[in-house]
UniProtKB/TrEMBL annotation:
GO terms for cellular component: mitochondrion. GO terms for molecular function: 2 iron, 2 sulfur cluster binding; electron transfer activity; metal ion binding. CDD domains: fer2. PROSITE patterns: 2FE2S_FER_2, ADX. Keywords: 2Fe-2S, Electron transport, Iron, Iron-sulfur, Metal-binding, Mitochondrion, Transport. InterPro entries: 2Fe-2S_ferredoxin-like_sf, 2Fe-2S_ferredoxin-type, Adrenodoxin-like, Adrenodoxin_Fe-S_BS, Beta-grasp_dom_sf. GO terms for biological process: P450-containing electron transport chain. Its cofactor is [2Fe-2S] cluster. This is LAFE_0C02762g1_1. The keyword Electron transport applies.
Length: 161
C-alpha cells in the first residue's frame, strides 16, 4: 500500500483541487436565487408588525409590514424596490442612500463614522440622509417614511483618477 508523507499528501490534495476546479468549474450567476431569498427579511409575528413607507422616485408610496431588526436595505430588496445596495450592507458604498422623514430622524440612532464617511459620497445629501443598510426597524421608528433619492452613486477607483 502506498503511504503518503506530509509533502506528498499536500501535493495530491493541491493537484486534486486544481483538477476539480478546472475540470468542473462552478459558475454562480448574479441574482440566481428566487426573489423571496433576497433581502433576508422574515414575516412579522402577528401583533408585532412594524410599518415602513418608501417614497419612490416617481412619488408613489409603498408601505410594508415588517419585523423588528429588518434593515431598510433588506426590506427594499425583498420588495424589489430600486435600492442597489452594492456592498451588501457592509457600509462601504452609498447606493442605499435614503432621505428620512424629519419627523422620524431624531428617533434613529446617530450614524457612526463609517456611515458618515459613506454619506459624504452620496448624491443629493440632505440633513436627514442615512444609509438604508444601517437603519434597523424597531418600535421607536414604527411608521417611518423614507424617500429614495433621484440618483445614487457607487464610487469606483476610476473616480479618483
Ligand atoms: S449597501 Fe452599501 S452602504 Fe449600504
Amino acid at each position: 500500500m502506498l503511504r503518503l508523507t506530509g509533502f506528498s499528501r499536500q501535493l495530491v490534495r493541491h493537484s486534486w483541487t486544481a483538477y476539480r476546479t478546472t475540470t468542473f468549474p462552478t459558475y454562480r450567476l448574479f441574482s440566481q436565487t428566487a426573489l423571496r431569498f433576497h433581502g433576508h427579511i422574515k414575516k412579522p409575528k402577528p401583533g408585532e408588525e412594524l410599518h415602513v413607507t418608501f417614497i419612490l422616485k416617481d412619488g408613489t408610496q409603498k408601505t410594508f409590514e415588517v419585523s423588528e431588526g429588518d434593515t431598510l436595505l433588506d426590506i427594499a430588496q425583498a420588495h424589489n424596490l430600486d435600492m442597489e445596495g452594492a456592498c451588501g450592507g457592509s457600509c462601504a458604498c452609498s447606493t442605499c442612500h435614503v432621505i428620512v422623514d424629519p419627523e422620524y430622524y431624531d428617533a434613529l440612532e446617530e450614524p457612526d463614522d463609517d456611515e458618515n464617511d459613506m454619506l459624504d459620497l452620496a448624491y443629493g445629501l440632505t440633513e436627514t440622509s442615512r444609509l438604508g443598510c444601517q437603519i434597523k426597524m424597531s418600535k421607536a421608528i414604527d411608521g417611518i417614511r423614507v424617500a429614495l433619492p433621484a440618483m445614487t452613486r457607487n464610487v469606483s477607483s476610476s473616480d479618483f483618477e
